[in-house]
Amino acid sequence: MPHREHHYQVNIEWTGNTGSGTESYKTYRRDFTVSAENKPDIPGSSDPAFLGDAARWNPEDLLLASASACHKLWYLHLCAEAGISVCSYVDRANGTMVEGIKGRFTGITLKPVITLRPSDDLELAEELHHRAHKLCFIANSLNFPVTCEPVITHALID
């Protein structure tokens, strides 16, 4: 299979200058806006532990969201190909970052709760998570473990 390249471009604009720039560590806001052509803006900041705004997305949130969304998209694709109908999918993913000389993530755990139509094969649905993990572009790009702990059930019949 030939390699294909996909290119992405986003803009990050710092919006936290309170009038004196970065004159000192505590005088500026960490606020920024993520933008890309034809997409809604994402308000960002740093984690509150680093003087950021808790109401805005921080880079750690966005990394976790990227890993979760990529896995979900591959999973839905594989289910559709296998004839499995996903009725709902909610992931309550979590990640751990440690600070030190070099701060880094040490792991992400995806915890999707999936509901399938009553006739679908639960074992196959579970196996498709393993396949999705192997195909996930984001997980394949990270240098720490990404694990998946799915809970899969059938929809109730009325």
Automatic annotation (TrEMBL):
Pfam families: OsmC. This is OsmC family protein.
